[in-house]
Amino acid sequence: MCYHSSIPNQTELDELLDYAIRTDEWDEYFNYMNGYDHKPLPVLKMEDPTKISKSNWGLVASWAKDKSHADMLRKSCLNAKSEDIFDTASYRNVIRKKRCLIFLNGFYEWREIGKKEKYPYFISLKDQKAFACAGIYETWNDKNTGEVRETCSMVTTTANPLMAKIHNVKQRMPVIYTKAEMFNWIQPHLTDEQIKALMKPLDESLMQAHTVTKINPKTPEVFNIPEVKLEVEYPQITLLDSD
Question: Is pTM beyond 0.90 here?
Answer without folding.
Answer: yes
